[in-house]
Amino acid sequence: MEKKQNTLYVGSLAKGLRLLRAFDESHTELSLVALAERSGLDKSAVQRLANTLHIEGMLDKDPVTRRFRPSHAWLELAYAYYWSDQLVGQAIPKLIDLSQEIGETVNLAELSRDHIIYVSRLPCQRTYFAATVIGRRLPALSTSAGRAIISTFSPEDREEAIETWPLKPFTARTTLDRATIRTSINEAVQQGHAISSDQMILSEIGVACPIIGPDGRAFAAVQCSVSAHTWTRERIRAEILPRLQDTANAISPSSQVHRR
Amino acid sequence: MEKKQNTLYVGSLAKGLRLLRAFDESHTELSLVALAERSGLDKSAVQRLANTLHIEGMLDKDPVTRRFRPSHAWLELAYAYYWSDQLVGQAIPKLIDLSQEIGETVNLAELSRDHIIYVSRLPCQRTYFAATVIGRRLPALSTSAGRAIISTFSPEDREEAIETWPLKPFTARTTLDRATIRTSINEAVQQGHAISSDQMILSEIGVACPIIGPDGRAFAAVQCSVSAHTWTRERIRAEILPRLQDTANAISPSSQVHRR
DNA sequence: GCGAAGCGTATCATATAATAATACTTGATA
DNA sequence: TATCAAGTATTATTATATGATACGCTTCGC
Fold first, then answer.
1. Does the distance separating the beta carbons of A62 and B96 come in below 8 Å?
2. Which residue of A has its CA nearest to B18?
3. pLDDT digits over A142-179, tens only?
């Protein structure tokens, strides 16, 4: 087994993690062989690793179907994550206020390499399930939050992101043309916020304001998703944006003490 | 190293997991030796394991302090968890409606052995941070949600839970007397809901209704936390309880198709 | 009701891959 | 500048994980 690196890389551990990552929105419970297929490991290895994960409480095993599923321990990890993320603690009360004020879904997104990840979500209206789940990771270029963040980068970094970061079609109208995205991000540079439509789901409009770090560069954004059926961009700018902006600003400057 | 079991138990993987679990609310970032102390492993082992976790993206490493922290991957695991939990998908839209109606914090709690774990939280008022974080695991006996769930058990199971499940003092007024808890649970048996005060934090009142499975036994509860400064038990029963009950019922019967 | 296929489980000889001791490097403290 | 604590690198040793093989149980299709 010619895994990565040597000596201070524990292959068995890495393989176990592969098993955990085999689960996603379309693979919610997996049998032994399914796990083997998805992880690329052989049956014996999966047998041992999955068994270990089960004993350690990281995987639940249905006694009748013998299928494995994520356990509550996965949520406990999220719990630990939240305490370690300075920004969330800072932001949460302000996000609650904002969501109460505007009565629409409010999200906190953080940059995660070339993606954004929703770290906190406060749904106010019924929405599709995926819009309520934390931990969703989406290409930064395709989201209002990502564009808002990128808009705070230096021109070079901005261009690099626009040119090289990944894109993926989610709806028929997801923008895959980088020139169009550049235009959108340039607007965000001018206006201090980003707006996008129909990117993740049709008839959805997203607005986002960057949370700017001490170095002037954003690492996160406050974002709001609304339905195009009840909102226009103009109304969003008039009614939502000011408060969204205030919230993002309120989170931004005070964070300089914490970020390291 | 005489770890548990044999042959189909991969010790290295288990040790790696110990490292992940070393992080919690009061240990948000850990150095190599701190990690060694908390996990009970020796420095060399931690070095290798932590390095592996870092390479695999499960731990962030501060380039200057060299400390490790939970990475965004921990949230991605939570994301996968949510898709695998049938109940959450079922419940979320109804919980959103409920929280909008009553304007107070609404939680979904699941039974996790002798604890409950908050699976979904919809904060409506500013609260302390811990009340907004998913994945919090609390002794079932000390929470309204846990008591509501236990109240649906058979008399024997109920008694066993009351007598043997763990308790831990969180506030000066956390009930540690099992007889008092028995009374509270018996009330819940009669009334179909549980109410508790001052258990996790002072001046907080929790109300919960069980989500009853096809076998008549609850495995989860809808819970609502309010401040004792603005609410009395009477007003809670009059204004919150009916809707809470409806929500729990709405989630309960339809779930029989899914639960396995 | 039989045979085959698919999957989960158990066993075991082998050498790979993890171990833990040791030594080196860095940087903070006094 | 000396000391200490913490992170990093190296190495010989063997324990530990490996994966091939075989067994048993269901679930099909015939």
1. no
2. A56
3. 999 999 999 999 999 999 999 999 999 999 999 999 99
